[in-house]
Sequence to fold (187 residues):
Amino acid sequence: MSARFDIQPTPLIGLNVLTRKPVGDSRGWFERMFCVDELQDVLETRRVMQINRTLTQKKGSVRGMHFQYAPSAEMKFVSCLRGEVFDVAIDLRPGSATFLRWHAEVLSTDNRKTMAIPEGFAHGFQTLTDDCEMFYLHTADYDPAAEGGLNPQDPALAIDWPLPIAELSVRDAGHPMIAAGFSGRRL
Fold:
């Protein structure tokens, strides 16, 4: 058991939700965002290679569903630093018992949750408030030649976005729909 994180598995094997446990006093609080030692059971032999931050300004915007192919496949630790998002991970692992199932969590400033998304999953989110800031830890460097994505509006995925989609990039709208016989992605 971690002192600074509550680690909860989700129904999708390998996908975990971390809840950060701040320590506070009359001045405010201190919160650990990541710790190799305390998250070793989730991180395993991986190491963080890149840290990224995004701002999405408009409520209802969707970013995703993104992944990277091997050898650049990555685990992501995704947190919301400002605002509130509906964060989604989809299992794309061939042969997985939860293949093509998705799991979502609301990530917010207040609930202090982080999604720990392993290789083999696509990831995306919808903003539930304006001006959402996201914080990502990646176990692989971004490689434009290895990027992939699925269309977040694909009926085969049936993601139950909580709001009408207000904004979607041309790139994300252009991600392919899942074709008949799709058997997964070796990521």
Q: What stands out?
A: The chain has two helices and 14 strands.
